[in-house]
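Quick check before the chapter quiz. The format below is the same one you will see on the exam, so make sure you can read both the input and the output lines.
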Amino acid sequence: MKNTDKYPEFFSSIPQSSQLSAVYSNTEELTELLVAYFKQGIEHGECCLWTVKDAQEVEKAKNELEKAGVNVGEYLTSSQLEIITIGTLSKNIPLFESAVKEIMEKRCEKAFSEGLPGFRMNVDITRTESSLIPDHERLEECLREINPDNRRKLTYLCTFPLGELSGSELFELVEENGIIVKRGEKWKYLVHTCNGNGQKDLDTTLLKAKKDAEATNRAKNSFIMNMSHELRTPLNSVIGFSDLLLEGAFGPLNTKQSKYVNNILLSGKSLLEIINNLLDISRLEAGEKTLKYQDVDIASLIGEVRISLLSPASVKKISVELKIDPSVGIVQADITKLRQILYNLLSNAIKFTPVKGKVAIGACKKEGVLEVKVSDNGIGLSKEIHEKIFMPFTQGDSSASRGYGGAGLGLFIAKNFVDLHGGKLWVDSEPGKGSTFTFTIPAKSENAPAQDNETKKAKSSPKGKN
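Here is the expected output.
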């Protein structure tokens, strides 16, 4: 194990290799690592390709490089630096190696034809299937094909979230090529050694790093779980008694009393929704990303979600239309998470649609893929914030946030749940012309359990939110 210098110079003490691997505990560590990695490449005159998952991350990458003293505009203009959205490439491991090869071939040829001494890039790999470790030999083979005489300096960095790695996967990374990990305030480069003491030191460091990360996550998630319980217990009483008062269980209410009690009820339900969303995020960050597949009747499920939101829609006199293609039928999905996706998208449309507006939800099946659209004639969104709204605690703009309320968690959760199903979620919108949110998921999943003759069919029943 070798200590590296303090950020931003720690890469200088790592042995030169075409393939580097690193683990991180949170997004702050990942950003710090990549800033140092690409700053060193820029300073060495290399062509640098920073891959991120969405447009919001592009802006963050630029800002962090600027803070580190890099003139981002200059290097972007000269094409020495490029920041692109690529998403995670872990859904299909063979695709990962092919994608790396394709990207490097195109960019390398251009870089070296312009006389640059080297090329470097990164890829962040997260778990969506049983394993997230790429095939080391296949990666090396791809690099040899690109750089057969080894005259060109090619470097790529694979980053892995520490919380998603098992112990065996950690050791596999170390044995293959060594890994970079942050311990305390410094980054360290861990390599496999045959020496007994060295192996013991490595084992201890890895175990402590993983335990520290897991302990931090457990403490945070435990706090959220406990606080949500303490908040939801009295909140459910507030909601329940408000319902009883409005129903006249304790005697009739006059107009003013009904108005105020209804305000209490709506505010209580809004707060409960925020608490449930925080719990969903906590579960996602804790690694609860498994799906319980079953057959789902899409038309029934959409109808159920529509009925659950008729009350807030009727308050604003908004019509909610259904446009379900008869052929949509059954899909294999996690019904709880699919219900949450639909609920979040439909409630979001109702929230941002003006009084007497229109909201429509449609579904169809195309070439084995379920496509669902939720449209409204609300305030709309400018193109530059289409990606931003899928970030947590974010809405279209500050004025909308003040005018419409909400914590900005619904779309973030919906996108994560769609991603778990191997699908995509996006928005088409213009200011003043409404918005259309579309998501697609496979109609039949390879991960769904085999069904017998008594196939379990998901019926639309009021199970509430997860």
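If your answer matched, good. The first helix runs from residue 27 to 43.
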